């Protein structure tokens, strides 16, 4: 394997550089974006420039391609997030967040797609939202789940005062993991965005990247019976794995028996206290 097969320099004015890159699902193209607000589409591995999109007025923080390669998301520091058609480079639409906050007080921080659990032909999208204007009063961060057909928000939840820094979706589409600026990690159920697990101060400084460990026969020997495991990296020069345990579930018959026992105990207690039932 050659160390380098092709090197391309993207020239621009001033100290411009590329900040985000992603591959299409078939491995035929690479998409890059950076501080000049442009998205570039390259052939792979020859690195021939095919398309340049003037996407944003400000620098682009992140681009993300859908699992099926039919939609490309761009997130910029200009407080906007846009949806593109990768093949043509045309604008499909813009993401409009429906949480009631003052205009441009929040911005999109990151975006990830994930397959819908149990459905290999459907996917969901999740975005992070953080305060754009820092104020004396603490403001919460949010996770939002989006419909990927019309690209409208389905559900938003507050994650607390800790500013979110990165996001990952598990390979099976069951979980969403987030990292924060204080080095903490939390895991949410993808379907409901209910918080499942949280660990404070996993890292001594902010989390820069997250990825769920693929569950295979090989990794199962290391992880045991864990439902999932979240790999995190940070500028504190460490990589750590946070275990994700399956939520405790009780069979329906046991819940019925428990409810019946509680009702009987209430009746006995009322009779003991002299109430006529």
Please identify the structural class as seen in this structure.
mainly beta
> How far from one another are the termini?
82 Å
| Overall mean confidence score, pLDDT | 86
- Report low-confidence residues grouped into runs of 5 or more: none
Share of residues in helices = 10-25%
Strand order within the widest sheet?
1-2-3-4
* Proportion of beta-strand residues: 35-45%
Largest sheet geometry: 4 strands, antiparallel
Number of strands: 19
Q: Which H/E pattern describes the elements? A: EEEEEEEEEEEEEEEEEHEEH
Note the overall shape. elongated
Number of helices: 2
Radius of gyration of CA atoms, rounded to a whole number: 23 Å
Q: Describe it for me?
A:
- By secondary structure, this protein is mainly beta.
- Helix content is 10%, strand content 44%.
- It has two helices and 19 strands.
- The protein has helices spanning 217-223, 252-272, and strands at 18-23, 29-34, 38-43, 49-54, 60-65, 72-76, 81-84, 91-94, 106-116, 119-131, 141-147, 152-160, 164-169, 175-180, 185-189, 195-199, 209-212, 228-234, 238-244.
- A four-stranded antiparallel sheet has the order 1-2-3-4, with no helix packed on it. A four-stranded antiparallel sheet has the order 5-6-7-8, with no helix packed on it. The chain has a four-stranded antiparallel sheet with strand order 9-10-11-12, with no helix packed on it.
- The N and C termini lie far apart (82 Å).
């Amino acid at each position: 394997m050659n160390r380098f097969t092709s090197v391309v320099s993207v020239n621009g004015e001033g100290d411009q550089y590329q900040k985000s890159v992603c591959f299409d699902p078939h491995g035929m193209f690479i998409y890059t974006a950076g501080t000049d607000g442009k998205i570039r589409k390259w052939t792979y591995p020859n690195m021939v420039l095919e398309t340049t999109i003037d996407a944003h007025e400000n620098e682009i923080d992140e681009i993300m391609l859908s699992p099926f390669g039919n939609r490309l998301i761009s997130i910029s520091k200009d407080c906007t997030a846009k949806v593109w058609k990768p093949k043509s480079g045309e604008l499909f639409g813009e993401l409009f967040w429906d949480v009631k906050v003052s205009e441009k007080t929040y911005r999109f921080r990151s975006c990830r797609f994930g397959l819908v659990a149990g459905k290999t032909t459907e996917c969901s999208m999740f975005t992070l939202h953080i305060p754009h204007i820092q104020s004396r009063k603490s403001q919460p961060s949010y996770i939002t789940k989006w419909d990927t057909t019309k690209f409208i928000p389905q559900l938003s939840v507050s994650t607390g005062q800790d500013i979110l820094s990165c996001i990952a979706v598990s390979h099976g589409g069951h979980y969403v993991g987030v990292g924060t600026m204080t080095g903490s990690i939390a895991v949410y159920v993808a379907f409901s965005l209910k918080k499942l697990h949280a660990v404070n101060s996993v890292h001594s400084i902010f989390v820069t990247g997250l990825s769920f460990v693929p569950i295979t026969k090989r990794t199962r020997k290391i992880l045991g019976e864990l439902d999932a495991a979240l790999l995190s990296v940070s500028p504190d020069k460490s990589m750590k794995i946070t275990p994700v345990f399956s939520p405790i579930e009780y069979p329906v018959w046991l819940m019925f028996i428990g409810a019946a026992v509680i009702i009987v105990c209430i009746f006995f207690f009322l009779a003991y206290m002299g109430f006529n039932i």
